[in-house]
Design a protein that fits this description.
- It contains 13 helices and no strands.
- It is an all-alpha fold.
Length: 325
């Protein structure tokens, strides 16, 4: 009787096994961090502290001088109270859009978790992230409520399209996590830049941002490493779909997070030429949009899903940066 000798593992299988082990250990660490370093929207923010009170005329809400709208003569000509109110309204709008985005993210993560087998480390992590995003939603909504302003958030077409994104968590997780990065990377970039700016921030806003960037670091790490592990295993057709859809998703989501909503424009009667000056013909604004997507753009390049054809889309949408590729 002959005994078959197991074939020696190929180089590719060894690399895949090592990558899988590395991913597993990373996810375990992220889950552990969610246990030892997490926040509660109400236990960890002293909402009723007098220092945290929101006064819509507080000059600390005024836009920083380097922000696109703040550099326009129209904004500078407004009374101080109006400048502060506009600044606060823009912050509240981004928080409303953020909590609605995170609502979509949570539902997509639950769809993703529904497909996972027993003993999957991703299952536990996904639920940790859902819990943290739920706390962020409570935190953002409480801030919006306390401003007393009418805030719209995402536009109706994005709300409608969110149903398709949620289903991607189960049907096409790689596309779903591209969407995650498209929503989280730009706002993470803006918040980190704001915290590093040395500006005199309202203490409530600073507290919320510090909590958010701490936990979002884990969420961004998981999404990036999930894509690094899964995209190379996708079919040619799936990779082509990613190459076309990624720049569209990233361009739309970054614009939502970095530009004023139509509601804010209407509320304060901001002239069309001012919006064009601040956000259309402004080289600094265009560069900020590119900078906010630098990490995810590099990731897409590293994953090999930026084809010559899709690069044209990146350029057309104004999110390609030839100087930082």
């Amino acid at each position: 009787m002959s005994i078959d000798t197991p074939a020696a593992p190929t180089t590719t299988s060894i690399e895949e096994e090592q990558a899988s082990d590395s991913f597993t250990e990373l996810v375990k660490r992220l889950s552990h961090q969610s246990v030892v370093k997490h926040f509660d929207a109400y236990a960890d923010i002293a909402w009723d502290d007098p220092d945290f009170h929101i006064d819509v005329t507080d000059p600390r809400w005024e836009l920083a001088l380097d922000e696109p709208l703040a550099s326009t003569d129209w904004y500078k000509a407004q009374p101080q109270e109006t400048r502060a109110r506009i600044g606060l309204h823009l912050i509240a709008t981004k928080m409303k859009a953020g909590l609605q985005f995170e609502n979509i993210l949570k539902r997509g993560l639950l769809e993703y978790a529904f497909t996972l087998p027993d003993n999957s480390v991703e299952y536990r992590y996904a639920y940790h992230e859902v819990i943290e995003e739920a706390q962020h939603g409570l935190m953002f909504q409480e801030f919006v409520n306390r401003t007393g302003l009418e805030v719209q958030g995402l536009s109706w077409d994005l709300k409608l399209g969110s149903r398709r994104v949620v289903k991607m968590g189960r049907r096409f997780p790689a596309m779903f996590f591209i969407f995650v990065l498209g929503g989280e990377d730009p706002i993470d970039y803006v918040q980190r830049e704001t915290l590093r700016s040395g500006r005199d921030l309202h203490p409530l806003l600073e507290r919320i941002m510090r909590i958010h960037v701490t936990e979002e670091a884990r969420h961004l790490s998981f999404a990036r490493h999930y894509l690094k592990r899964s995209v190379p295993k996708l079919s040619w057709l799936q990779r082509q779909a990613l190459s076309i859809q990624a720049p569209i998703t990233l361009g739309v989501m970054a614009s939502v997070m970095l530009r004023p909503s139509k509601q804010v424009v209407r509320t304060y009667g901001i002239p069309a030429e001012v919006i064009k000056e601040a956000y259309g013909d402004n080289p600094k604004t265009r560069q900020a949009l590119k900078d906010s997507l630098h990490k995810v753009r590099k990731l897409c390049i590293d994953l090999g899903i930026v084809s010559p054809a899709s690069k044209l889309l990146w350029k057309r949408l104004g999110i390609w940066d030839a100087a930082r590729v």
